[in-house]
Every structure is written in structure tokens, then in C-alpha cells.
């Protein structure tokens, strides 16, 4: 696929995700970690304007000077921006104007993509992978927004993501030894995957299956959310301050657990893999089972023998740079490096992840309390 075809395909995919929304669905921001769909559409376009068109297309005219302030996410190098928690306040520009902005960017990107400049094509590749990350965020943000509606509206009745089941069972044993970790090869990768290096691992066993809803219900029914012994101190405070008693999107109706899904409200499927779990919950469940979460290095060493990709899997590894990691110069250097503190690594991919992002070395990362992504649990034995 040519770079132009790839660009058009990925940009269309973003709009396809939003195609079932009403105008009213584009604007809400019920919590600060969720961004309105309209903001995603504009920000992913601003990325191409700021890092490619303004710098590499001769005589390019910025669409609207205010858009940099409105739709910059976290790039301090670029300038001021609206606060993340206030993205839902942006009622203007309208949804229609944001689509006009996307069309304007796409029209000028067609001209830029005619250039045979390797630096331009490398930045385009980054921009497309960035947009694919926002496609996943769009899907999970849309789910959260619709899940706050007491009518539990359906996004797509044909999506059965929450009902995905395990295809493997049992545990795999790995001997102690030296294992190589990190990206090595052709194709795109993010800078946080670089710095391939060797790690020593003690012998370990890792589950071939993810924890299911039925298994997690045993933890709930055993009083797991009421027993401080299973929780980190921070996790125990989080449970009590937020009155947590089940995974996100679970609702007890007539004494039976239901779950809001992309296909609407459904009874919890006991055989499906549990999802929308925080690191705190994953760690507590492992404690209750007298097991543990794998480190990201154990996960990567084992991944070739595992069935993964249904849920982002919490690891017991803090998000830190690999040896020899170096931030790129300028605003692009803000992409990953500055977030390497107070976050935990997740591995694999989820049902909402673009296929191009489902690689063994991909390092996702979130704060320990976050669970609006399709996150799950894989256990390791001590």
C-alpha cells in the first residue's frame, strides 16, 4: 500500500468510527480522562498541520490560528493549550467546522505526500500511528460517554468485544536465563520500545488464559472489595473513596450483574474475559489468588507462546525508559519520554486496538487507577 493510500485509509477509519454518532454525542466530556469525539477528530488533524504542513509544505496557510490552542494536547514546545479537563467546554467550532478542518488538512496532505522526502514520510508514519492510537481512544471514550447515559444506548449491536473468550488454558513454564527485550527489526515502532537489551529472569510460570468474568465474580463474592489485605494502600483508598465494588461498566440489576457493552446493556457473560479493570484491581485479584502479575519482561519473553490481543494486560512493571533510551529533539521528544513516571505498563493489545499496533514489543501505559480501556488480567505464579 502506498503512503497516500495508507494515509487515506487510516483517516477514513477515524471518521467511520464516528459515523454512527449524533451531533450531541460529539461534545460531552463526563470525566477529565475522556476526550470528546470532536476533540479527537480535530487534534489528530492538528498533529499533521503542526508537525508536517506548517514546516514542510511551501506557502501553507494555517486553517485557524485558534485551533493550535484548542487542539494541542500536551506539547509544551508548541505553545499554550486548553486544559485537558475543559475539552468538553469547546462547543465552538462546531462538529461541521471540525470536519471541514479535516478536509482542509487532507487536501493539503495529498500535496505534501507527493514529495519524496524521507524525513516527511517518517513523520507521516508517526502521525498515522498517532491517529490509530486516537482511534482506540475514540472507541473507549465513546463507550464511556454512552455508558454514562441512563438509557445505555447501543453503539454497534454487532460488536461483541466484551464477550471474547479464552482459546487456551493452563500454564507455561520458563527457565531462568537471559532474555532479549525491545524492538528489533523492520517496520514502525515507538521510541519507548527502543533500546533492545538483555534481562535476567528467574524461573516463572505464566497463565495461557486471561481471568474470566466468572473467576472475577468469585473474588467479588468472597468480599475482595471489602478486605484491605489484598490491596495496595493507595488501591484501598481508591476503592473506599470511589465506592468501587466491581469492574467499570458493571451494574447490579435485580440482584444480577449486567455490563454496559458496545452492543448495549447485557448480562455478564461468565465465560468472557474480564475487562475494564484497574491495576489496583488486577493486583488485588492476584493477591487473593496467591499469585502475581507478570513483569513486562516476563510477558514479552512468553508472548510468542500466548494468545493475546483481546485485552490490554496489566504488568507489575513501572513505565520506565529502556537502557540507551533518548528523547528526540523538539516537540516530538514529548511524545513518550516525559510520561515515564507514576504509570504502569500494559502489554499486548485489545479488541479496540488497530492491528498495526498489535506487536510483542508495544508498551502501553496508564495510571494505576485507570480502567476505561479494555484492560484485563493474566496471572503468573510466584
From TrEMBL:
Name of this protein: Ergothioneine biosynthesis protein EgtB
Listed PANTHER family: HERCYNINE OXYGENASE (PTHR23150:SF36), SULFATASE MODIFYING FACTOR 1, 2 (PTHR23150)
InterPro entries, alphabetized: CTDL_fold, EgtB, Sulfatase_Mod_Factor_Kinase, SUMF_dom, SUMF_sf
SUPFAM superfamilies in the cross-refs: C-type lectin-like (SSF56436)
Gene Ontology biological-process entries: ergothioneine biosynthetic process
Residue ranges occupied by any Sulfatase-modifying factor enzyme-like domain in the UniProt entry: 171-303
Gene3D superfamilies, per database record: paralog of FGE (formylglycine-generating enzyme) (3.90.1580.10)
